[in-house]
From TrEMBL:
InterPro entries: LSM_dom_sf, MS_channel_1st, MS_channel_C, MscS_beta-dom_sf, MscS_channel_2nd, MscS_channel_C_sf, MscS_channel_TM-2, YbiO_bact. Signal peptide: none annotated. This is Mechanosensitive ion channel. The chain crosses the membrane at residues 17-38, 59-84, 90-110. Residues 109-178 form the Mechanosensitive ion channel MscS domain. Residues 185-268 form the Mechanosensitive ion channel MscS C-terminal domain.
Length: 286
């Protein structure tokens, strides 16, 4: 009781509390400054057109900022414990024993971090890429990468669903955003049409108008007749577009081609159905 009334004791405790608060404030300011420096560095790197895309830089910024934040807070916690004369070394030794006890349970966490490190090192995908993540041949998620960390990756699917995937289960990645997309556009015309004439009309149209579709990389290539089915001649056109733009480009080009062929008097084929009528009453009478 006498010690509790000792003003020196309370002054010491108060000083340690103030010191701890000061360390936390400095840590917050330091994290903010360092994160800003990291962001500005990669922003300048992107402007100078050094190696690395904007998406790659953004991914590295997020990972580095998270790593710096975790490290600084770990140091702060150790310093605060030291201020209050808590045995940090003993706590760390005890944590080592506990860690050994739960080591088998933490194997998946270690695997996640190691896999995340290699995903980052090998530049398998970046924030904003459209990817398909597989595990042993089974698709676990497909969509746009919203964020990437050393432990987990967040992917938004086609319908807005959010997949949070531990990196450890990702052993196959299909990245649709790295290279130009290729789309095959089939045009069905009546088999009675002059196919050479149709191809010449398409070739002339592409020479003049292909650049009106902003997502196209090169002039569409006519691959020619692919087959005849149900009275329809199928002419195939190959489109090369910017990554992940082939869906919209194919729809727009199909509409433009249809309208142009109609203007030139070429009929787009419609599936035909042969209907035969039988006189059931007559058959019954016989």
């Amino acid at each position: 009781m006498l010690e509790l009334k000792n003003p020196d004791l309370w002054m010491g405790i108060g000083g340690r509390i103030l010191a701890a608060i000061a360390i936390i404030v400095v840590a917050l300011i330091g994290i903010k400054i360092i994160n800003r420096v990291i962001g500005n560095f990669f922003k300048a790197k992107g402007k100078s057109r050094l190696k690395g895309t904007d998406k790659r830089n953004q991914t590295l910024v997020n990972v580095l900022q998270n790593a710096v934040t975790v490290f600084i807070w770990f140091v702060v916690i150790m310093m605060v414990l030291e201020f209050f004369n808590l045995p940090v070394r003993t706590l760390l030794a005890g944590a080592g024993v506990v860690g050994l006890a739960i080591g088998f349970g933490a194997q998946s966490l270690v695997k996640d971090i190691i896999t995340g490190f290699f995903i980052l090192l090998e530049n398998q995908f970046d924030k904003g890429d459209f990817v398909r993540a597989n595990t042993s041949g089974t698709t676990v998620a497909e969509g746009e990468v919203l964020s990437f960390g050393l432990r987990a990756t967040r992917i938004q699917g086609w319908e807005g669903e959010l997949f949070i995937i531990p990196n450890g289960i990702i052993n196959e990645v299909v990245n649709f955003s790295r290279y130009n997309a290729i789309s095959m556009l089939d045009i069905n015309v009546a088999v009675e049409e002059d196919l050479n004439k149709v191809e010449n009309i398409l070739e002339s149209y592409f020479k003049v108008h292909w650049q009106e579709e902003d997502t196209l990389i090169t002039k569409p290539e006519i691959l020619g007749l692919q087959g005849i089915q149900n009275g329809e001649a199928i002419i195939r056109v190959m489109l090369e577009t910017q990554p992940m733009e082939h869906f919209g480009a194919t729809r727009r080009m199909r509409k433009a081609i249809k309208n142009h062929l109609l203007e030139k008097g070429i009929q787009i084929s419609v599936p035909k159905m042969d209907i035969q009528q039988f006189d059931v009453t007559k058959n019954k009478g016989e």
